[in-house]
Fold this sequence. Notes:
40% helix, 0% strand, globular
Amino acid sequence: MVPLVFEDWLRPFVDASELIELVRRVVADELEVPLEALRDNGSLRKDYGLDSVAAVNIIFALETKLSVTIDVKKLASVDSIHDIRELLSKDELMPDLQQVGRR
Length: 103
């Protein structure tokens, strides 16, 4: 699997579906779950074993790859890939993510 990396200058030109794919890859890598096994609305805690350390690692990886800052206090509400998408769009970091359909 080739890692997706978006430079800050490139971010406005990246399709929202590519950003969701990046989120899915980061989550799959951190939780050591096959990418094809992830469901966007599946519980990261119950279904995939997300703990607080993994959550921080996922957010840090997304911040690094997308050149954004995410409020760590908001992690308590994150339990799915869909929640991560919502978190990014609520923070107005990636408003186009609201347009992407759910899997």
